[in-house]
């Protein structure tokens, strides 16, 4: 299933969780990590579990949980509690390598058995670039990764801290500096190589919807599908930006039709432009994405 908008909601706020539930986000990420103060960890865990238990219909909107990182002792109690509410998946922050993702998969298997949930039902979305080490270990995802991993995003804020950077953007242009562009590129390449959904990074300036839209379109051109949101006002823009337009679909269909009518031809011209096999592949991908998004309802 394709998820276009993933809205972060602090796991210790009833008000925001209800607001998130009414929002058009394809998925909520109920957060137990950075948006929750140390003193509110236990209450957040309980509130999040209770919210999951009270909201069993996930047909329109999935409910995911970001737990604390695996090297934090809070992570196992987080998992043990929230699995009772059968979340659609876990967002795993601050990974060092694929080994962390596989370890989480093993924990989930034990907990699913304990809860009587179907084994394998809880999926994983990892935040792949928040530690310095993570930039050196992308190849480990190609050496055998759990089927539970369905999505991968990147992040520049924690990575900046881990790299010792005082900022992650150029002061004049506002563009990401090279280590962060590298992180973005490696996340995209790895996600595509292992056939999971590459998800675009959050735009923190949540009142600036023009900037958000431009960033969504840039991500989409690059190959990302969907984006993380931190404010309910961002999700409509994200859904729209990642939904192929009627024009896009018609154009893709035209490419497919012309190739179908000309079997044996590897290259064709349409409206004065050359199209070959990579374009046919892209056209098929676009139609498949459009079908999957339509099935979201
Ligand atoms: N999910 C659900 N509802 C949210 C929300 C979110 N992420 N962010 C804001 N809202 C609600 C607010 O509660 C408010 O509702 P109300 O008027 O009924 O109280 C409404 O949307 C408008 O909020 P607004 O005043 O524009 O924003 P704010 O100043 O209250 O909150 C943030 C700003 C950044 C603190 C807030 O958007 C937030 O908590 N975001 C998520 C942060 C997070 O999870 N970070 C971790 C990942 S990086
Ligand atoms: Mg963070």
Task: Give a summary of the structure in a few sentences.
The protein has helices spanning 14-21, 41-54, 75-82, 98-115, 157-163, 178-193, 209-222, 235-241, 246-261, 277-294, and strands at residues 5-10, 27-31, 62-66, 89-92, 123-127, 149-153, 197-199, 227-229, 268-270, 273-275. The protein has 297 residues and is α/β, with parallel strands linked by helices.
Fold blueprint:
Layout: E1 5-10, H1 14-21, E2 27-31, H2 41-54, E3 62-66, H3 75-82, E4 89-92, H4 98-115, E5 123-127, E6 149-153, H5 157-163, H6 178-193, E7 197-199, H7 209-222, E8 227-229, H8 235-241, H9 246-261, E9 268-270, E10 273-275, H10 277-294
Parallel strand pairs: 1-2, 1-8, 2-3, 3-4, 4-5, 5-6, 6-7
Antiparallel strand pairs: 9-10
Helix pairs in contact: 9-10
Magnesium ion binds near residues 34, 157 and 158.
- CATH homologous superfamily of the largest domain, by name? Phosphoenolpyruvate-binding domains
> In angstroms, what is the radius of gyration?
20 Å
Tally of helical segments: 10
Distance between the termini: 12 Å
In this entry the ligands are: coenzyme A, magnesium ion
What is the overall silhouette? globular
Oligomer description: single chain
Residue-averaged pLDDT: 96
CATH architectural designation of the largest domain = Alpha-Beta Barrel
């Amino acid at each position: 299933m394709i998820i276009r908008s993933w809205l972060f909601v602090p796991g210790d706020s009833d008000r925001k969780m209800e607001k998130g539930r009414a929002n058009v986000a394809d998925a909520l990420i109920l957060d137990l990590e950075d948006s929750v103060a140390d003193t509110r960890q236990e209450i957040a865990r309980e509130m999040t579990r209770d919210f999951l238990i009270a909201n069993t219909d996930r047909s329109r909107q999935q409910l995911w949980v970001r737990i604390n990182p695996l090297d934090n002792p809070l992570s196992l109690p987080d998992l043990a509690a929230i699995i009772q509410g059968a979340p659609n998946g876990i967002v795993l922050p601050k990974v060092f390598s694929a080994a962390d993702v596989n370890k989480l998969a093993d924990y989930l298997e034990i907990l699913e058995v304990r809860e009587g949930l179907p084994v394998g039902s809880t999926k994983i979305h990892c935040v792949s670039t928040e530690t310095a080490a993570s930039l050196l270990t992308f190849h480990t995802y190609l050496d055998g990764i759990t089927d539970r991993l369905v999505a991968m995003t990147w992040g520049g804020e924690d990575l900046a801290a881990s790299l010792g950077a005082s900022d992650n953007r150029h002061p004049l242009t506002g563009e990401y500096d090279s280590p962060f562009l590298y992180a973005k590129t490696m996340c995209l390449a790895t996600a595509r190589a292992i056939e999971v959904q590459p998800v675009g990074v959050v735009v923190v300036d949540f009142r600036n919807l023009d900037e958000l839209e431009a960033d969504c379109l840039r991500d989409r051109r690059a190959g990302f599908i969907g984006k993380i949101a931190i404010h309910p006002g961002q999700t409509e823009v994200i859904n729209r930006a990642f939904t192929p337009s009627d024009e896009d679909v018609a154009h893709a269909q035209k490419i497919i039709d012309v190739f179908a009518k000309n079997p044996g031809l590897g290259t064709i011209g349409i409206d004065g432009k050359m199209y070959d096999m990579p374009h046919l592949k892209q056209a098929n991908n676009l139609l498949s994405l459009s079908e999957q998004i339509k099935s979201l309802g």
